[in-house]
C-alpha cells in the first residue's frame, strides 16, 4: 500500500513537471537538473511543516496563520530549494528558467504533501489534489520564479523578496478560502488558481520571446 501511494502521488507531479518544462523551447533545461529541483522541493516540505507546527499554537488567528506562517514558510522553503541548488548554475540563464525551476521545486513539494494526505485521508484525494492543489503550488511559486531570474541578472534582491511575499499572500488566501465551509469560498479558491495559471501561461510566452537563445526573431 505504501508503494502504491508513492507511485500514485508521483505520477501527477512528474506529469506536470515535464509538461511545464516542455514550454522552454529554445534552450530546454537538462532533465537531471529538473529532478534536482524536484527532489529539493520534496525535502523542503520538512522545514515548512516544522515551522507550521511550531507556530500553530502560537498564532490563533487563522487568517494570519495561513498567510504569514503557511504561505510564507512554504514559499520561502520552496524558494530555498532552488536558490541552494540550481540558482548558481550556468543553466539558469534565460527568463523562463525561473518559472521552470520554481515549478519543479513546487511539484516536488506538492508530491510529498499529496503522499501525506493520501496516507491520512485515503488515495482517492489524489484526484482533486493532483489538479487543483498541485497546480496551486505551481502558480504560487511562479510568482517568485521569474523575479528570482531578475535578481540573478541584476543583483537586486527586492525582485525575489517581492515575489516571495506576493506568493505567500496568494497561497495564504487560497488556503483560507479552500478550507472554508462555504461553497462560494471554495469557488474563489479555484478562481485564484485558474486566473494565476492563465497569467503564468501568458507570461511564459512573453518570456520565451526574451530568450537569448531564440533564433527565429
Automatic annotation (TrEMBL):
Annotated transmembrane regions: 6-21, 33-51, 98-120, 126-146, 158-176, 182-200
Keywords: Cell membrane, Hydrolase, Membrane, Protease, Transmembrane, Transmembrane helix
Subcellular location: Cell membrane
Membrane topology: Multi-pass membrane protein
InterPro entries assigned: Peptidase_PrsW_arch/bac, PrsW
Keyword Transmembrane helix: yes
Coiled coil: none
GO biological process: proteolysis
MF terms in GO: peptidase activity
GO cellular component, one term: plasma membrane
Keyword presence, Cell membrane: yes
One matching Pfam family: PrsW-protease
UniProt protein name: Protease PrsW
